[in-house]
Specification:
five-stranded mixed sheet; elongated; 27 helices; glycosyltransferase; five-stranded antiparallel sheet; Penicillin binding protein transpeptidase fold; carboxypeptidase; about 40% helix; Immunoglobulin-like; Glycosyltr_51/Transpeptidase; alpha+beta; about 850 residues; penicillin binding
Length: about 850
């Protein structure tokens, strides 16, 4: 083979190899493109199939839905209509009555491609799909066209939890259908007649009259921009409620209109410089009356939407509620006048929840003071920091329920840090009480005992179960899920939740979820029962013992919450600012952000919260100006009113609870000893079967009569000897003394024998008792007879008389002996006694002289006199 052929072959092989390499790359690239295309195709097919599946169940869209002329009637507990939602607040405006500036404002902020799209905005749909993937099936963010929003307002719920991908698909499908049936003008007109613009106001025609007292055709740029911006969050951007937020939102709309070339820069500046409150008119009499029940109506809306998915604004329902109109009016009057309570500061806010304890029926709600309009913030339904009102729910209730603690259970109030944390709770007075009972700890609202019980004695599962039985999700007590150590003394709950939970204490442990609605009847006559079931949330002993303890609170606070002849129980609560807030907002050290009082009778449970809408300088409550006591005054005014004419009975102690007298200070509880003073005996409640049995000896054991008492008289020595057995105490450190009484003469001894020389003759009664621990026991006694004593001279004479006298014989006198010389000095000494000194009887009768015994008798006499 020639060299040229060899080179040619090598070149051919090289090109072939490169060709194979190039072909392989192209092959795999083609495969990838095909795979991607297949995936996209499958995704489109799957998405299309899913879309078809979703829209197959889409509801029909009728003219009735679009116009929305059906109103709902709300009935009070007596069956009287007290409120109507729907047509009466909707004035339909014809296209020619709606100014172009109003249409432009909506297009600028809601749907810039409204005039060109076919009902849906593909960009918006893409954004919704991304939101579905990244938010676990929940749609967030905008993207809906005006047509889609009209569909949603007409046939779907506007609640955030209902914004699913299925709902978005159905909205899109119906929007496309609607665009094929109606003109753009008709769609925009229906939309502007359907949107909610605060409270019970629907449509721009009604809103224009409500806010500015003029027809929609006269709206100016700044007014039209306000309504266009309010559609996103009607109550949040209400100029009467939140003027700052409303003005900020309005100005965004104005700039959007300028950006779209709808208005000039000069017109935009002029509109922006107009205060949002300019031109606002006062509320009408009807609207002011509607404010009375507005908080209750808000709860009704919430319950029906949550339980049925129906919108009471459009569904044409008949709604039977539990409203007590007289109680509701009194709650509103108390909160919104100075006739009953001095609120001290104009911007103080408050909330009231009144619940019937046996049924859980909400009888009245007060959501705010001085409301600026309907459907604004309802504090009765919003979580507030609870302070100590949470203690019976997270600590003391579970401790009695699961650990069967008595009301006497002892806790030491001392400096304390929760184990495993750096949290050191403090008491309100910065003091420590030492050992105290569970009853006193709760009534006096000591923080440290509560923190000890919850974090050391209870299991988290027990607390969670107790709360769950009362309709409270423990994961919602704090900003983060779970139960925290601080929940022993604080947490977050709504006033309505607290009223419902405390109602269970009054109702023997039975709990019914607080509810405003009992029954709903739809337009076609279907009845929906919305009464929740009653369940046993706790044992009857827990409910009764907590109630018995909490009766001490209104008893101690009778000057502020006392109501004559009304058995009641209750609990106060106070929160604190964060440490940095005191300096940031110039709050005094005694200032607090929230104050509570939750109380109940055998008929009603009533919770009252007082605080502020926001933390700002001057927004604090204080004992110095009385503002911290506002909840108590509100409670007294409302509870005394609603309790009139009712049978306000005492709570009956169940058989599962036993009252026992125990010695105060004993730990564990002991029965009083026989010597326990009355001042050291307290009556406390125990779960039957857990009562104490041990008897206290702190003030001494029971003393008995001494044994072995005997008396023996020795006639020869003329001594009475009294003996007895030694008395032994259980407490070896305590000493015993003996109380001896002989013929009425008493003495105290420490020995077990007494000798009395020359005891009085006759029958003698001898008694003996013991003393110990500051007390004296019963007596033992014995009797003895001491014979009469005979004088020696008389005895000799008697003897001489009894002797026979012999014959007398003269005898010489015997010589007399000389006197002994030692007796003379004694006689001389006697003779030399100074004149006037009485002779000593002992010298006349030396044979009876007993100088040693006289001092003993004198000493005994002195002791007896003492």
């Amino acid at each position: 083979m020639s060299e040229k052929e060899q080179v040619s072959r090598q070149h051919y092989r090289k090109n072939k190899k490169q060709s194979r390499q190039s072909g392989g790359f192209k092959h795999w690239f083609k495969r990838i493109i095909q795979a991607l295309f297949l995936l996209v195709t499958l995704a489109v097919i799957a998405g299309g199939s899913l879309f078809v599946y979703y829209v197959s169940s889409a509801p029909d869209l009728t003219e009735e839905d679009l116009v929305g002329a059906f109103s709902s009637d709300l009935l009070d507990k007596n069956g009287e209509v007290f409120y109507t939602i729907g047509a009466e607040t909707r004035n339909f405006a014809a296209p020619e009555e709606i100014p172009d500036i109003m249409v432009d404002a909506v297009i600028a902020i809601e749907d810039q491609r409204f005039k060109s799209h076919f009902g849906i905005d593909p960009i918006g749909i893409g954004r919704a799909a991304v939101g579905f993937v990244t938010n676990r099936g929940q749609i967030v963010g905008g993207g809906s066209t005006v047509t889609q929003q009209l569909v949603k307002l007409s046939v779907f719920s506007t609640a955030p939890e209902d914004q699913t991908l299925e709902r978005k698909a159905q909205e899109a499908w119906l929007a496309v259908q609607l665009e094929r049936q109606l003109s753009k003008e008709q769609i925009m007109t229906m939309y502007l007649n359907r949107i909610n613009l605060g409270g019970n106001i629907y449509g721009v025609a009604a809103a224009s009259e409500h806010y500015f007292g003029k027809p929609a055709s006269d709206l100016e740029i700044h007014e039209a921009a306000l309504f266009a911006g309010m559609a996103q969050a009607p109550n949040r951007f209400n100029p009467r409620i939140n003027p700052d937020l409303a003005e900020r939102r309005r100005n965004i709309v104005i700039r959007a209109m300028q950006s779209e070339g709808m208005i000039t820069e000069e017109e935009a500046d002029q509109a922006i410089n107009t205060p949002v409150t300019e031109g606002l008119v006062e509320l009408s009499v009807v609207e002011q009356n509607d404010l009375v029940v507005d908080s209750f109506v808000t709860q009704v809306r919430h319950e029906i939407r949550e339980k049925t998915g129906l919108d009471i604004s459009t569904a044409g329902l008949t709604i039977e509620t539990n409203l007590d109109m007289e109680a509701q009016q009194r709650v509103f009057d108390v909160l919104n006048s100075d006739e009953y309570v001095d609120f001290v500061k104009d911007n103080v806010q408050s909330a009231v929840s009144l619940v019937e304890v046996e049924t859980g029926k909400i009888r009245a709600l007060g959501g705010a003071r001085n409301p600026g309009g309907l459907r604004e913030t309802n504090h009765a339904m919003e979580k507030q920091t609870t302070g100590s009102t949470i203690k019976p729910l997270t600590t003391y209730g579970p401790a009695i329920e699961f650990l069967q603690y008595s009301t006497y259970h002892q806790i030491v109030d001392e400096e304390y840090t929760v184990p495993g944390t750096d949290w050191t709770p403090r008491n309100f007075d910065r003091q420590f009480r030492g050992q105290m009972s569970l009853r006193d700890a709760l009534v006096e609202s000591r923080n440290i005992p509560a923190a000890k019980i919850m974090n050391e004695d209870l299991e988290t599962s027990q607390i969670d179960e107790f709360l769950g039985n009362l309709g409270i999700d423990s994961d919602e007590l704090n900003d983060s899920p779970g139960i925290f150590p601080q929940n022993a003394i604080n947490g977050e709950m709504t006033p309505l939740q607290l009223a419902g939970a405390y109602a269970a204490f009054s109702n023997g442990g039975n709990f019914t979820q607080p509810h405003a609605v009992t029954r709903v009847t739809t337009r076609d006559g279907q009845e929906i029962n919305l009464v929740p079931e009653t369940n046993r949330a706790m044992s009857d002993y827990t409910a009764y013992m907590i109630t018995d303890i909490l009766r001490g609170v209104p008893s101690n606070l009778s000057s502020t919450v006392g109501i004559p002849n009304l058995p009641q129980a209750g609990k106060t609560g106070t929160t604190n600012f964060a440490p940095e807030d005191y300096e940031r907002f110039n709050h005094p050290s005694h200032g607090v952000p929230d104050s509570w009082y939750v109380g109940y009778t055998s008929n009603y449970s009533l919770s009252v919260w007082t605080g502020f809408d926001r933390n700002a300088e001057g927004n604090y409550l204080s004992l110095e100006d009385g503002s911290r006591l506002i909840p108590r005054h509100i409670y007294r005014e409302v509870m005394s009113y609603v309790s009139q004419g009712l049978n306000n009975t005492e709570w009956t102690r169940p058989s599962s609870v036993t009252e026992v007298a125990v010695e105060d200070g004993s730990d564990p509880a002991q029965l009083p000893g026989p010597n326990t003073p009355d001042s050291h005996i307290v009556n406390e409640l125990f779960v039957t079967g857990t009562e104490p049995t041990e008897v206290s000896t702190s003030f001494g054991e029971e003393l008995s009569a001494p044994t072995g008492l005997s008396a023996d008289y020795d006639e020869e020595s003329d001594e009475l000897t009294i003996t007895w057995d030694e008395y032994t105490l259980d407490n070896e450190d305590e000493s015993v003394t003996y109380n001896l009484s002989v013929d009425g003469q008493s003495t105290t001894l420490s020995d077990t024998e007494a000798v009395i020389t020359e005891p009085p003759s006759g029958s003698l009664t001898i008694t003996l008792s013991v003393s110990a621990y500051g007390n004296t026991g019963p007596e033992s006694s014995v009797s003895i007879t001491i014979p009469e004593r005979i004088d020696e001279e008389e005895e000799e004479e008697e003897e001489e008389e009894n002797v026979q006298t012999p014959p007398v014989t003269e005898q010489p006198a015997a010589p007399q002996p000389e006197p002994e010389p030692e007796e003379e000095p004694e006689e001389e000494e006697t003779e030399e006694e100074p004149p006037g000194t009485e002779p000593d009887p002992s010298e006349e009768e030396p044979e009876e002289e007993k100088p040693e015994e006289e001092p003993e008798e004198d000493e005994t006499e002195e002791d007896s006199e003492e």
